[in-house]
Amino acid sequence: MSERIRVLVSGARGKVGREVIKAVLGDNTLELVAAVDHNGVGEDAAVLAGLPACGVLIQGDLAAAITETQPQVMVDFTSPASVMENVRIALMAGVAPVVGTTGLSARDMEEIAEWAAAKEVGCLIAPNFAIGALLMMRFAREAARFFPNVEIIEYHHDQKLDAPSGTAIKTAELIREERRAIRQGHPEEEEKITGSRGGEFDGMRIHSVRLPGLVAHQEVIFGALGQTLSIRHDSISRESFMPGVLEAIHRIGAYKGLIYGLDKIIF
Ligand code: NAP
């Protein structure tokens, strides 16, 4: 068997991080070499993920974990406040980041692109790792050629920190590539409660719903004369992200520089 890819998981104790630990341990072409989180330092990463102990203990310091364990890939599902520094630390050490954490700004991404290019290391930032969500975005982009009137409604659990979701922003960006520019709704419409028409993106509206019980869902609704078209994707468990995460871990070594969107490496 060829050498296994050495993987560090950052945010290993989080909701998605635990699934990543399970997925990496379940793939015999990958080796989990380190698990990093603010919480649970010293606990076995596999036990936290509901599996028998694997001997990889949670560490609190990302830079020290990289120096000690020499990973090839860092998978990051942490928080909007932490991700930028984590990506910087990984890239400066020559480790390829596979980033699921959302909330990075366009400016952040420009900076990351510069770091990745300078170090000649691949870095994937993917707002959504679920293959069905990628297809939803692709179909929405296609539909926008015919239906320029569109609103995006994204639904997430109430622990999510950023709004709108990275997926909603990415969807709007893709739609913008195909849609003729129009400003939607009545020109004189008035919001009785601020924000009731949602966030404005290039004339489109994006609405963010936050409720316990939800995981990650999105509906893109197109309206035209006498018809509507709804394109919807539901991640009903966090396992839905894992085939995409594994695919990214396997492929990132072949790239140099920043890649934004899993679609760029799997379609
Ligand atoms: P979560 O349950 O809060 O987990 C995040 C974990 O990372 C927490 O244990 C947190 O600790 C830890 N953490 C934060 N900063 C850290 C740092 N600098 N170093 C080490 N650990 C750190 O969140 P989640 O639901 O797993 O989501 C994580 C991120 O992934 C969010 O941005 C979410 O939007 C995104 N997400 C992306 C996708 C996708 O497909 N791209 C899918 C689902 C979620 P503390 O609690 O102490 O801060």
Automatic annotation (TrEMBL):
> Which GO cellular component terms, listed alphabetically, does the Swiss-Prot or TrEMBL entry include?
cytosol
User: Where in the numbering of this chain does the Dihydrodipicolinate reductase C-terminal domain appear?
Assistant: 132-265
Q: Which CDD domains match?
A: DHDPR_N
Annotated residues for binding of NAD(+): G11, A12, R13, G14, K15, V16, G100, T101, T102, A126, P127, N128, F129
Record-listed (S)-2,3,4,5-tetrahydrodipicolinate binding positions:
H157, G166, T167
Pathway(s) annotated for this protein in UniProt: Amino-acid biosynthesis; L-lysine biosynthesis via DAP pathway; (S)-tetrahydrodipicolinate from L-aspartate: step 4/4
Which segments constitute the Dihydrodipicolinate reductase N-terminal domain?
A: 5-129
Listed EC numbers:
1.17.1.8
Question: Could you give a GO molecular-function term held by this entry?
Answer: oxidoreductase activity, acting on CH or CH2 groups, NAD or NADP as acceptor
Compartment(s): Cytoplasm
Q: Which one Pfam family would you cite for this protein?
A: DapB_N
- Principal cellular location given in the protein's record: cytoplasm
Give the enzyme's main class according to its UniProt record, as a single word. oxidoreductase
Quaternary structure?
Homotetramer.
Family from the record = Belongs to the DapB family.
Sum up the protein's function in the record's words. Catalyzes the conversion of 4-hydroxy-tetrahydrodipicolinate (HTPA) to tetrahydrodipicolinate.
Q: What is this protein called?
A: 4-hydroxy-tetrahydrodipicolinate reductase
